[in-house]
Amino acid sequence: MDVAIPTADGTIGGYLTEPEHVTGPWPGVVVLHDVMGVHADVKRITDRFAAEGYLAIAPNLYSRGGFVRCIRTVFRQLLAGSGQAHDDVDAARALLTGRADCTGKVGVVGFCMGGGFALLAATREFDASAPYYGQLPDPLSILDGACPVVASFGATDRLPGMRGATAKLASTLAGYDVPHDVKEYPGAGHSFANRIAPGPLNTLAKVARFGYHHEASEDAWRRVLAFFATHLR
């Protein structure tokens, strides 16, 4: 269902799903969207977490203006490591922890742009983080003291900053004694866990070697669920 998420600067939109067949209280998951916003696939993933027994919410980080203007603003804040978008992620977590049917344990998962935010959110009071093909923070030292991280990358991802990201992240987390599971999937590219709707953007994405890869997506899903079961339940 659509919900309003209170923040220190008004409210933003979001999509919330509650487990139907498991008695609460439940741990929570904040699902962070890719560059396309809270589209049908993001809602599908949110629903899938709820089906696994998590109180799941996807905040709309583009709630504060037009699509193009919001993309620019949110990306600037991602690169800066601070700003309203990061506060909005925290506000989504606070909405979950403030509910009587939440255990207080909350993880964060993000895709592409949202993966970058999820990795930074590992340093911001979350209990586990699952970035998918997210940009690594600069400097990596910000991850000192991060919560446990389960990260997934595609070996054929050619976006800037993705080459070598798997090894860099794994080495950094190991150096800081952060519990982690970092994996790269051969044959999978960027957005391998997202089903992009048919249309011009989907065609362009395939030319750029983006696209859904079922085997990699399902393996990453199993890893994330196992990791979250360990650190959120």
Helix content: 25-40%
Shape: globular
Based on secondary structure, the structural category is alpha/beta
CATH class: Alpha Beta
Question: Unreliable runs, pLDDT <50, ≥5 residues?
Answer: none
CATH-level-4 superfamily name: Alpha/Beta hydrolase fold, catalytic domain
Q: State the CATH architecture.
A: 3-Layer(aba) Sandwich
Order of helices and strands: EEEHEHHEHEEHEHH
Structure description:
Helices cover about 35% and strands about 25% of the residues. An eight-stranded mixed β-sheet has the order 1-2-4-3-5-6-7-8, with helices on both faces. The protein has a single domain, classed as Rossmann fold (3-Layer(aba) Sandwich), CATH 3.40.50. With about 230 residues, the protein is of the alpha/beta class. It contains seven helices and eight strands. It has helices at about 40-50, 65-80, 85-95, 115-120, 165-175, 200-205, 215-230; strands spanning about 1-5, 10-15, 25-30, 55-60, 100-110, 130, 150-155, 180-185.
Name its key features.
233 residues, alpha/beta, Rossmann fold, 8-stranded mixed beta sheet, 7 helices, 8 strands
Helices and strands, with pairings:
Blueprint: E1 2-7, E2 10-17, E3 26-32, H1 40-51, E4 55-59, H2 67-80, H3 84-97, E5 102-111, H4 113-121, E6 128-132, E7 149-154, H5 165-175, E8 180-185, H6 200-207, H7 214-232
Parallel strand pairs: 3-4, 3-5, 5-6, 6-7, 7-8
Antiparallel strand pairs: 1-2, 2-4
